[in-house]
Hints:
Layout: H1 22-29, H2 35-75
Amino acid sequence: MPRINTATAASRKRPVNLTLSEGLVADLKSYTSNLSATAEELLSAYVVEQKLARLNRQQEADQAVAGWNALHADLGSFADEHSTL
């Protein structure tokens, strides 16, 4: 299983431009005093979630391929019955 790094607090930081609606920023200020840290925490969680979802999709695809390969090994190709070669 690939390693999913969630340690962003010790990572080197750099400024980026992020455009948010004024209303959202005003609402956010009532919930957090550090918008950057909150955004980083939420985005880090999102990245982990997406990596896990991608890994899950890949595992499902691998299982499907293994199933089809097993079926082919047991029964052969359905196309062989209709081949003109």
